[in-house]
Amino acid sequence: MKKFYSMMVLCLAMAMTVSAQVKAPQASPFSKVEQTVGLTDVTLEYSRPGVKGRTIFGDLVPVDKMWRTGANKNSIVTFSTKVMVAGKALEAGSYAVFAKPGKVNWEVNFYTDTENWGTPKEWDATKVAATVSARTMKLNDKVESFTMSIDNLSDGAADLSIAWENTKVVVPFTVPTDEMVMASIEKTMNGPSSSDYYTAGRYYKDSGKDYNKALEYINKAMEMNPEEKFWMVRQQALTLAKLGKTKEAIMAAEKSIALAKIAGNDDYVRNNEKSIAEWKSMKK
């Protein structure tokens, strides 16, 4: 028995040794910044090395050599909409931020490949979505921890700021706030779209809330479309059937079949044929 307990204690000690992990602060802590600019969501993800008594630019970070802009994995900026960076277009998406620090200007690159630990082993110019020249600014107060931020917010613009030690660079960008607001105003002033009516109609039909209202909305959606859509006619047929208008439902289903055949959608053909057979059997 004593031997058994000794073995149990030994196994428990080994299990604790295997599962135990020493936790300590990261040398370059991860940071995530989320900022809305106008109607555009901007996210920064980067690591923050410290100066720690070192000379940074021109020593730890060489001049005129590509740098990951921070530490660990490459820094990433994500835009929820298209933006203009220093007059250059960037589509919505995520970009790695690489910089080539200079004494007077920095070359800041927005790189489409964001999965790099440090700088890419092989730089691919085709992955550079935009390159911006940013003038360096000397700071009176030292920035101990590498910092990226979104500053100088307005409804349509902001600055991507990069600061460390006694150096700061700013990359201005604009967002399509006016374009998005005007599109929203135009859509609202023009009333619901065909898609809005169709979605509302399906909800009323699928939930059994109000089949008459469902038919009204689906018919409205169909009226607003320049071409008949087989899926809309299918929903019209199903709604007519729910209202007991079997003859009209069969006619609509037959039209949906014809449209689905033109579109090459066999599923809708089969579903409509099945419904027609069911509705005809109900009439007998």
Report the portion of residues in β strands.
25-35%
> What are the low-pLDDT stretches, counting only 5+ consecutive residues below 50?
none
Rg result = 31 Å
Mean pLDDT: 91
Give the tally of structural domains. Answer: 2
Distance between the termini: 83 Å
| SSE succession | HEEEEEEEEEEHHHHHH
- The structure class reads alpha+beta
- Count of helical regions: 7
Order the strands across the largest sheet as they lie in space.
Answer: 1-2-3-6-7-8
What would your notes on this structure say?
This protein is of the alpha+beta class and 284 residues long. The chain folds into two domains: 25-176, no CATH class; 192-283, Tetratricopeptide repeat domain (Serine Threonine Protein Phosphatase 5, Tetratricopeptide repeat), CATH 1.25.40. The chain is built from seven helices and ten strands. The protein has helices at 2-19, 177-189, 194-206, 211-224, 230-242, 246-263, 266-283, and strands at residues 30-37, 40-47, 75-79, 83-85, 88-90, 93-100, 105-111, 128-135, 137-151, 157-174. The chain has a six-stranded antiparallel sheet, with no helix packed on it. Strands 5-4-10-9 form a four-stranded antiparallel sheet, with no helix packed on it. A hairpin with a 4-residue loop joins strand 6 and strand 7 (105-111). Helix 5 packs antiparallel against helix 6 and helix 6 (246-263) runs antiparallel to helix 7.
